[in-house]
Write a structure and sequence with these properties.
Strand order of the largest sheet: 1-2
Distance between the termini: 22 Å
Largest sheet: 2 strands, antiparallel
Structural class: mainly alpha
Order of helices and strands: HHHHHHHEEHHHHEHHHEHHHHHH
Radius of gyration: 31 Å
Number of helices: 20
């Protein structure tokens, strides 16, 4: 047994790749890349920084002396300055110019934004994988009739493929928001202590054009082209709210899918994959609990709870900044991504291996379709010269009696037999069985699947570079 708490998002749910994005090693290496980009850009704009200093910084860019940094932080009580000192202890010639003109948020904010961007790319890849699997599922079951529900009560028929498009469209809308967020992605840039760039203006003897060039150069060296238009010491924390809200939206879509799957599994119409040696219940050996979809819901609920935290953080940033966001961000941003990563890992697994039971679906349709077909029966009789009001009353009486037999006496639904035996419906006695074919009651569901996939989903995959993502963690 391990004797200290370990975060299950790391040990049970998220892939290693997502965990690595938010690791200390990733963060501190980004800090050093930012310091190098800053020094290179300052040199290019005329500050007295040498090629030797830059070369020595690059030599130790990925070789972080953690023990030195940890000792320094205990002394100076400041993580950024501890790493400035640690970097300077290695790149000794560059020590005087590391972090020149910058404030801590130059490295912390820019690095966090880069980490978020890298994490969003993982989310994007996994979303596409889920959407591809749902696309295949919708195609396969485009015309399989299934009971449709409103209020969780049988309503009219739809198809299983059409239901899958509902799950898929939710994700499509989320993906559009993800694309929008990433296409306009920004770094904090080079802004200085209160966002005025005063320290950099001083370095360049009042030449504001060089300060603007400096910011552009640094951001470009880090692989980006845009910066937040203005900032205080930090980029606006409303952006963190936007990011986590997007993650929560994706979690909502996964939650809806997983809840629907849990209900279908209860109906025995479809179920999530169940391994040959899997145990569904410790007490009831026959059970096949929807454990994966339940886990999706559990993790999704956690993600959905997080936007309010970011909203509070954004609204309480006093003037140019306060530090009560820092410790909070260490928890909220990584854990939101890690939890959603766990959701998507399971989502991929389930959508790849959904088991469908058409015979059970057909049996359940057979139990409900007689009630749903009554309007069709009335219309056919009216066409043959019957009185709609008399027919409606007769149908009502037969329906009530059949419902009573089903609900109170546990008998089968004999509505159609009752209708056939009533002379008022004589006009449809010989054709009523053909009226009751389930495919007559699905409307345009199958065509809607085709239209949706061809108009929305297929073009998306043509425009996106897509490689199916294979989770490395056991879900």
């Amino acid at each position: 047994m391990k004797d200290i708490y370990e975060n299950p998002l790391i040990t049970r749910y998220a892939d290693r790749k997502m965990a690595e994005v938010f690791s200390d090693d990733s963060k501190f290496k980004l800090w050093r890349k930012l310091w190098i980009a800053l020094a290179e850009s300052e040199k290019e704009l005329g500050l007295p920084i040498t090629d030797e200093q830059i070369a020595e910084m690059k030599k130790f860019a990925g070789d972080i002396n953690y023990e030195y940094a940890e000792r320094e932080e205990k002394i100076v009580r400041h993580d950024v300055m501890a790493h400035v000192h640690a970097f300077g202890d290695q790149a000794k010639s560059a020590k005087p110019i590391i972090h020149l003109g910058a404030t801590s948020c130059f490295v912390t904010d820019n690095a966090e934004l880069i980490q978020i961007y890298e994490a969003l790319n993982i989310v994007k890849s996994k979303m596409l994988t889920v959407m591809d699997k749902l696309r295949a599922f919708a195609k396969k079951y485009r015309n399989l009739p299934v009971l449709g529900y409103t209020h969780l009560q049988p309503a009219q028929l739809t198809t299983l493929g059409k239901r899958a498009t509902l799950w898929l469209y939710d994700l499509y809308l989320d993906f559009e928001d993800l694309q929008h967020l990433m296409s306009g992605y920004k770094l904090r840039g080079v802004k200085g202590t209160t966002g005025t760039q005063a320290s950099f203006l001083s370095l360049f003897d009042g030449d504001g054009s060089k300060v603007k060039q400096l910011e552009s150069k640094v951001v470009k060296k880090m692989g980006f082209s845009k910066v937040f238009a203005v900032s205080g010491q930090t980029y606006t924390r409303k952006f963190d709210y936007e990011v986590v809200s997007l993650l929560a939206q994706i979690a909502q879509s996964a939650y809806k899918f997983a809840n629907d799957m849990r209900i279908m599994q209860s109906f025995k119409e479809a179920e999530e994959p169940f391994e040959k040696s899997q145990i569904g219940s410790s007490a009831m050996a026959y059970k096949r609990n929807p454990m994966r979809c339940e886990r999706i819901c559990a993790l999704a609920r956690f993600v959905q709870s997080m936007p309010i935290n970011e909203a509070v953080t954004a609204s309480t940033q006093w003037f140019e900044r306060t530090l009560d966001d820092s410790a909070n961000k260490r928890l909220s941003i990584p854990q939101a991504f890690l939890a959603l990563d766990g959701v998507l890992n399971i989502f991929i697994n389930v959508t790849e291996n959904i088991v469908v039971y058409p015979n059970v679906i057909a049996k359940r349709i057979g139990e409900e379709l007689p009630f749903m077909a009554t309007e069709e029966i009335i219309m056919e009789c009216v066409k043959a010269g019957g009185d709609r009001q008399d027919l409606h009353e007769a149908i009502r009486r037969h329906s009530m009696e059949s419902a009573k037999a089903v609900k109170e006496r546990g008998e089968h639904n004999d509505l159609i037999e009752s209708i056939k035996g009533d002379k008022i419906f004589g006009a449809v006695k010989d054709t009523i069985d053909s009226i009751l074919k389930p495919e007559n009651f699905i409307g345009r569901a199958a065509e809607q699947v085709d239209d949706f996939l061809s108009d929305y989903i297929d073009p998306l995959f043509k425009s996106e570079k897509y490689t199916p993502f294979e989770p490395t963690i056991n879900v």
